[in-house]
Amino acid sequence: MRTRLTLLLVAITVLAVACSPTTDATTTTRGLQGQDNGPSSDEIAPSFAVETFDGTTFNLDDHLVDDGRPVFLNLWASWCFPCRKEMPAIDAAAANHPEVQFIGVAVSDTEPDALKFVEEIGVSYLLAFDADGSVDDGYAPLGLPASYIISSEGVIVERIFGEVTEESLAEKFEQHFG
User: Fold this and answer.
1) pTM of the model
2) How far apart are CA 147 and CA 144, in angstroms?
3) Which CATH superfamily is 2-177 part of?
4) Half-sphere exposure of 42 (CA within 13 A, CB side)
């Protein structure tokens, strides 16, 4: 009984920390035991390809070569309450900033749960599922939500841990892309 209670408390603590509604801030914080958590600003964004919920494939490298727009990459999960809260704001920002390609990728989730959430939330920007875990592994977010602003050259210009707002994204796009 005591072991179950301890495990439950640990799980709740991990979930609370991983999905805490922190302020919208950039960071290059180092993880436990001094290990880096994913790529930092000014590093080349890890390459990835994901199947989207609309049946297409999004490949970051192909997008940068063929389309050339900067990318706003948002990592989310259906169980993450701050992720749910910020998605309408991201959707509004996507509508107001067609010069940026928006994509949200479900990580650390199950595909059925992610699909159910996609159907419930009803946003219009591109959403995908990280079926093989390569996006989660490549970006190694400190928690969710996590977002990355990637330049048209494929460089991470900012990483954001915590919720974003439509206003904060407009300021960031102005700062990075004029």
Assistant:
1) 0.81
2) 9
3) Glutaredoxin (3.40.30.10)
4) 2
